[in-house]
What does this fold into?
Amino acid sequence: MTGPITADSADQPSTLEHRLRTIEDRLEIYNLIASHPPSADTGAKAYAEAVYTEDGVFDRGAGLSSWSGNAAIGASLESEGHQAAIAGGLAHFTGLPHVTINGDEAVVISYLQILTPRKSGETVEVPNHGASRGYHIHRVVTNRWELVRTRSGWKIKRRTLRLVDGSEPAREILRGALGELA
It folds into this structure.
């Protein structure tokens, strides 16, 4: 799609000031979403607490722990299980997100892969890149990030993720990126 950047909401004027604010908002939101892998893979409790609203929710779906409140979300990164995953080489890898901004709220739809190093198997050497046994894609999930603009920038109000396993919940999240054409 080409053409000028316009307001995400039909009731917003497409002034130069508004267009610049929209670009700045998108860049801040992209950086917020891009910060998730390094913060999760380093157990950055204080960072997680800072990017979620005080009443933020992280909903990982049935069978997995979920948390309410930025303090609980931050504390989850210091849990024994999460620290063991980090020590084992946990790597979160996110895809480019789809961002929809509507005033002081935004919805972001994205994919996330969780990778882990292979502990056994044949070592493969790649010229000029070293040798390893490679990585295993442990999980692929869809994410719906509900954001709000605060005085200190964009924050996560709610994050919902669902496993990509052929079931409807993951596809439902993805349809959110397609708008009326879904």
